[in-house]
Amino acid sequence: MATKELNLVAPNGHAIVGLKRKDGGTSPFTCTYDDANRTFLYILPAGTNSKVLKRDGTSVLVDAQGIEWSASDVEYNSVGRP
């Protein structure tokens, strides 16, 4: 299967709206998923501050309610959703 764009959904069912930055802000992004290699790629818009916050080596994602999630928890929850 080819790489496809993936809408990420937090375990609470809310859409993920951004990546947390080291400066405390949130950046919008696009997520792609390669099913063959089981890899995720986060693509930030050009000109975006690329200093993404990581906790325990994992990116921090933010849902529509402002709740922060580990990327690995969100990825697991999002694969296979319609």
Task: Note the topology.
Elements: E1 4-5, E2 16-20, E3 26-27, E4 30-34, E5 39-43, E6 54-55, E7 58-63, E8 68-70, H1 71-78
Antiparallel strand pairs: 1-4, 2-3, 2-7, 4-5, 6-7, 7-8
Q: Got a strand count?
A: 8
Number of domains: 1
Beta-strand content = 35-45%
> Considering DSSP H and I runs of 4 or more, what fraction of the residues is helical?
under 10%
Structural class of the secondary elements?
A: mainly beta
Which value, in Å, is the CA radius of gyration? 12 Å
SS element count, helices:
1
Oligomer: single chain
**Mean pLDDT across every amino acid position:** 90
The 3D shape can be described as: globular
Could you give the order of the helices and strands?
Answer: EEEEEEEEH
Largest sheet: 5 strands, antiparallel
Query: Ends: how far apart?
Result: 16 Å
Low-confidence stretches: none
In short:
By secondary structure, the protein is mainly β.
